[in-house]
């Protein structure tokens, strides 16, 4: 196989970047753009492959990829935003989109539609998730939903036959207790979700409320939150949850999460992580819904898992839009990306992918289809300060898990704090 | 007088590069941060004047501010004395007049050279992890380890231990101080048959007082400013239940995570006042226990 100089440089560049080195100086090319995303080893590999394909198809444009874990991503992004050197293309999350749009850090995409950006094949639902005040600021590059990933082998060995799409919180608790009992405590039922705001949000929605109201105020009640914490506390007291020390970090690396490390049978994830989880596990994974409340409202919702946005600091928007367009339409690129970032919103792409699904990809697509009529609407956009509220939730939940505070008093304090954070951010 | 200023002119000329740097790179930003602390500024728009709002919020409503103070004081109270004791102990051992003193001095100083580095903090995180080296060693003795870093009641002590381990800088200063104590004092004490403890208490400590004082002030300032180990070990969050939220990590988060530059500037000034106060206290009390050689009592 002959290796051209370009290809050699592109691959070595990719390897160097993947190794976490600072990006290489752009080669002697006239145009260069930067793409920044939060990732994991699998995602990074795919993305660097896509960059290679793009550079092959567009002589004279070089793309430098920058990646970092979710936890550090937003710190780095914030610093780059302040320093006015954001990458041309940044990966965006629904939670932070509004904050960044309101701070003027992102460019509107509407002028490029039909003018470099071809969205004729795009599902309308996912598209609307990236709109703020009726304007498109972020292109959906995958949809997902909350999921409880479970270990099918452990379930089988413990003789669990519960319907995990329609199960209730009581069913879930019983499953956790059974597994803990059957394995003699070697494998606990589940990770503790006391510090996971996304799961708590489902609980609140099942009670018929959302966490934030239309105006951005906190409308969840202390009773909602306290009930949620109490549920986990009871399960912990029954010995069916993972030890405290490993239950306090909401941003654990994937390999340390209970179901992956073999400490538990069930862990909470986003559905686009199923493939990544399976890659780290011997046993086959299954996908369960967040448990329901009998007669409750639907708790889960399908949310845009990730967006790609064009930053205010882009020096070459034209090249950046080319990259964005190929990302969602180019057959070769979409094949490389697969379902790793979530379910693509382009039906053509989905059709093309279907024959080659791996078992794990099939699990996630089947799950996605199964939950379609069991999810509620997308909650209203989050106000500025939502990220900080999440931090406060983790702190309060930690106090409850450690037994430093009773659920009710911790919940009252947290709701108070959350509203104060929102008021202050205005 | 005239001649003097003419003579000084050339001095000032030579000082110019440094003075420029001082005014542009140090005094300027310091004054800007003082101004910013009275504003609301998110780095995107323009600063908005809010008077004393930041300070009022800090002292009346901000629970995390008090928590950060508590954690920082906790750290200072443990880390400073323990590090100084360790440094003095090792310095006295080395002062015994070893042949290979240079080698040992270098070895003991090594951790401090590495100390500020990110690598060491990451290493620390691994050491004290649930399945880390510390717990594996404990397991050999049949002791069930805990998650030192994930447990709020122990996490701050991982930082303290790290601080003690980096005793190199004060040790070198102590060593120099010990070398400066006249030997004849010890010889006289030996002739009188004084015990080792008494020699330490009656000769070493008083003679070393100025050096101890110097080290104490430096270490207090340094401990209040501790940042990178706490930041790295807690992943930038301040750890579980804010147990590692030292003041500077809180300040960093306010500034670079939530973009409250005005508020963060206010926090910085409060820290300056706190450090200033403690340094002043150290100086004020020093006249009761620090005596300099050249003083006439």
TrEMBL record, chain A:
Signal found in the keyword field: yes
Record key words, sorted: Periplasm, Signal
Principal subcellular localisation of the protein: periplasm
Classification via PROSITE patterns: TAT (PS51318)
Single GO cellular component term: periplasmic space
Cited Pfam families: SBP_bac_1
Location in the cell: Periplasm
Record has Signal as a keyword: yes
Span of the signal peptide: 1-28
Family, as annotated: Belongs to the bacterial solute-binding protein 1 family.
Protein name listed in UniProt: Sugar ABC transporter
Organism the protein comes from: Martelella endophytica
Automatic annotation (TrEMBL), chain B:
Top-rank taxon, per record: Bacteria
Entry GO CC: plasma membrane
Major subcellular location class: membrane
Protein's GO biological process: transmembrane transport
Record-annotated ABC transmembrane type-1 domain positions: 69-282
CDD domains: TM_PBP2
Membrane topology designation: Multi-pass membrane protein
Chain ranges passing through the membrane: 12-38, 73-94, 106-124, 156-179, 200-221, 227-252, 264-284
Compartment annotation: Cell membrane
A Pfam family matched in the record: BPD_transp_1
Keywords, in A-Z order: Cell membrane, Membrane, Transmembrane, Transmembrane helix, Transport
Protein family: Belongs to the binding-protein-dependent transport system permease family.
Protein name (Swiss-Prot/TrEMBL): ABC transporter permease
Phylogenetic placement of the source organism: Bacteria, Pseudomonadati, Pseudomonadota, Alphaproteobacteria, Hyphomicrobiales
């Amino acid at each position: 196989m002959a290796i051209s100089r370009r290809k050699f440089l592109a691959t070595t560049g990719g390897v160097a970047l993947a190794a976490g080195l600072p990006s290489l100086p752009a080669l002697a090319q006239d145009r260069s753009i930067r793409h920044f995303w939060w990732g994991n080893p699998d995602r990074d590999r795919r993305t660097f492959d896509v960059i290679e394909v793009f550079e092959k198809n567009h002589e004279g444009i070089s793309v430098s990829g920058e990646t970092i874990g979710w936890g550090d991503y937003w710190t780095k992004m914030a610093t780059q935003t302040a320093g006015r050197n954001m990458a041309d293309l940044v990966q965006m999350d629904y939670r932070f989109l509004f904050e960044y749009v309101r701070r003027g850090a992102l460019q509107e995409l509407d002028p490029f539609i039909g003018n470099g950006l071809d969205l004729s094949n795009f599902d309308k639902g996912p598209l609307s998730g990236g709109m703020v005040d009726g304007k498109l600021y972020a292109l959906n590059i995958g949809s997902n939903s909350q999921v409880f990933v479970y270990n099918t082998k452990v379930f089988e060995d413990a003789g669990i036959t519960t319907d995990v799409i329609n199960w209730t919180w009581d069913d879930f608790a019983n499953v956790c207790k059974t597994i803990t009992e059957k394995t003699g405590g070697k494998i606990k039922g589940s990770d503790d979700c006391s510090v996971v705001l996304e799961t708590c949000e489902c609980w609140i929605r099942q009670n018929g409320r959302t966490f934030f109201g239309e105006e951005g105020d906190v409308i969840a009640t202390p009773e909602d939150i306290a009930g949620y914490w109490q549920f986990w506390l009871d399960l912990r007291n029954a010995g069916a949850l993972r030890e405290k020390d490993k239950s306090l970090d909401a941003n654990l690396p994937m390999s340390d999460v209970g179901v992956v490390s073999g400490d538990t049978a069930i862990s909470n994830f986003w559905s686009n992580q199923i493939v990544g989880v399976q890659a780290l596990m011997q046993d086959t994974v299954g996908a369960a819904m967040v448990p329901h409340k009998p007669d409750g409202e639907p708790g889960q919702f399908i949310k845009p898992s990730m967006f790609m946005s064009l930053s205010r600091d882009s020096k070459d928007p034209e090249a950046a839009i080319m990259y964005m367009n190929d990302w969602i339409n180019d057959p070769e690129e979409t094949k490389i990306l697969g379902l790793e970032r979530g379910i693509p919103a382009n039906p053509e792409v989905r059709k093309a992918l279907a024959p080659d699904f791996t078992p794990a990809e099939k699990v996630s697509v089947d799950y996605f289809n199964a939950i379609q009529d069991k999810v509620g609407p997308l909650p209203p956009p989050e106000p500025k300060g939502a990220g900080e509220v999440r931090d406060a939730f983790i702190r309060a939940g930690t106090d409850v898990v450690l037994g430093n505070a009773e659920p009710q008093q911790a919940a009252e304090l947290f709701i108070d704090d959350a509203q104060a954070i929102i008021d202050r951010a205005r | 007088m005239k001649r003097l200023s003419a003579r000084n002119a050339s001095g000032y000329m030579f000082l110019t590069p440094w003075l420029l740097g001082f005014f542009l790179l140090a005094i300027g930003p310091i004054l800007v941060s003082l101004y910013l602390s009275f504003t609301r500024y998110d780095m995107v728009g323009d600063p908005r004047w809010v008077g004393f709002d930041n300070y009022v919020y800090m002292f009346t409503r901000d629970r995390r501010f008090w928590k950060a103070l508590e954690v920082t004081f906790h750290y200072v109270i443990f880390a400073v004395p323990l590090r100084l004791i360790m440094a003095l102990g090792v310095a006295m051992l080395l002062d015994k007049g070893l042949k290979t003193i240079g080698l040992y001095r270098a070895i003991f100083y090594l951790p401090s050279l590495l100390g500020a580095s990110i690598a060491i903090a990451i290493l620390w995180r691994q050491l004290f992890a649930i399945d880390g080296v510390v717990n594996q060693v404990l397991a050999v003795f049949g002791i069930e380890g805990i998650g030192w870093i994930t447990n709020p009641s122990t996490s701050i002590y991982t930082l303290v231990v790290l601080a003690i381990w980096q005793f190199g800088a004060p040790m070198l200063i102590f060593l120099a101080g010990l070398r400066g104590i006249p030997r004849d004092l010890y010889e006289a004490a030996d002739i009188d048959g004084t015990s080792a403890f008494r020699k330490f208490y009656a000769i070493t400590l008083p003679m070393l007082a100025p050096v101890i004082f110097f080290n104490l002030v430096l270490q207090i300032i340094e401990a209040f400013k501790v940042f990178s180990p706490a930041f790295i070990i807690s992943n930038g969050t301040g750890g579980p239940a804010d147990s590692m939220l030292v003041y500077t990590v809180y300040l960093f988060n306010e500034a670079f995570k939530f973009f409250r530059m005005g508020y963060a500037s206010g926090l910085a000034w409060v820290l300056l006042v706190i450090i200033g106060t403690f340094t002043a206290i150290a100086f004020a009390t020093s006249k009761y226990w620090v005596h300099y050689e050249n003083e006439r009592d």
